[in-house]
Amino acid sequence: AQTVTQSQPEMSVQEAETVTLSCTYDTSESDYYLFWYKQPPSRQMILVIRQEAYKQQNATENRFSVNFQKAAKSFSLKISDSQLGDAAMYFCAYRDGGSQGNLIFGKGTKLSVKP
Amino acid sequence: NAGVTQTPKFQVLKTGQSMTLQCAQDMNHNSMYWYRQDPGMGLRLIYYSASEGTTDKGEVPNGYNVSRLNKREFSLRLESAAPSQTSVYFCASSPKGFGNTEAFFGQGTRLTVV
């Protein structure tokens, strides 16, 4: 069964600095997708960034980028120029390429941003 | 554009009571999902419905039932609530499975069973 591991329960970053959140996963599939979701105190789940396993190029979305290492099964999220609004829980998630695939979530990393 | 709407947002139940969590989406999505979120556990899939008329168990289905009433609505029922079902429940939808497309989540229901 596929698993997703986030080894950092909590992280802290100074405003305007850069922080990297770690995620590793385990799968025997070759076709899959990876996601980072943000959950602020409002509880809303917000998609931050996604990566297709077949793409070698790392995905970027404004201040958010990933370091996707397929062989190492690693998918870290880098947040540049951190802002106070980035404070939230961040979840890494995995999905098989099959059309009925479930999203499998890690346990989350709580990010605090210090002014 | 409402997206995914869950009701209620908060609920307190006594052990043994029953209730139904409602979820509706207005995006014409085929697939709908129910997750529960517990502290330190991430989100875990309870049930999902790949299309209207079909439902399947997820990782933690015990104690729950679901109904895909039509394409828009997917309800989650607790027949006899237990304290272990205290959690935050999320409904989600996507066009066809998740693929690499965004899954849309409701705002969650915080359920407390006393």
Write a structural description:
- The complex is a heterodimer of chains A (115) and B (114).
- Chain A contains no helices and twelve strands.
- Chain A has 115 residues and is mainly beta.
- In chain A, a hairpin with a 6-residue loop joins β5 and β6 (46-52).
- Chain A starts with a strand and ends with a strand.
- The relative contact order of chain A is 0.34.
- With 114 residues, chain B is mainly beta.
- Chain B is 0% helix and 51% strand.
- In chain B, strands 2, 4, 5, 6, 9, 10 and 11 form a seven-stranded mixed beta sheet that branches.
- In chain B, a hairpin with a 6-residue loop joins β5 and β6 (56-57).
- Chains A and B meet through β6 of A and β5 and β9 of B.
How would you state the average pLDDT of chain B, rounded? 91
Number of H- or I-type helical stretches of chain A:
0
| Largest interface, Cβ cutoff 8 Å | A-B, 22 and 26 residues
**Helix/strand/pairing category of chain B:** mainly beta
| Poorly predicted ranges of chain B | none
Helix content of chain A: under 10%
Question: Which descriptor suits the 3D outline of chain B?
Answer: globular
Along the chain, the helix and strand elements of chain B come as EEEEEEEEEEE
Note the total helix count of chain B: 0
Radius of gyration of chain B: 13 Å
Number of strands of chain A: 12
Mean pLDDT of chain A: 93
The portion of residues assigned to helices of chain B is under 10%
Largest sheet of chain A: 6 strands, mixed
Strand content of chain B: over 45%
Which class do the helix and strand fractions of chain A yield?
A: mainly beta
**Global outline of chain A:** globular
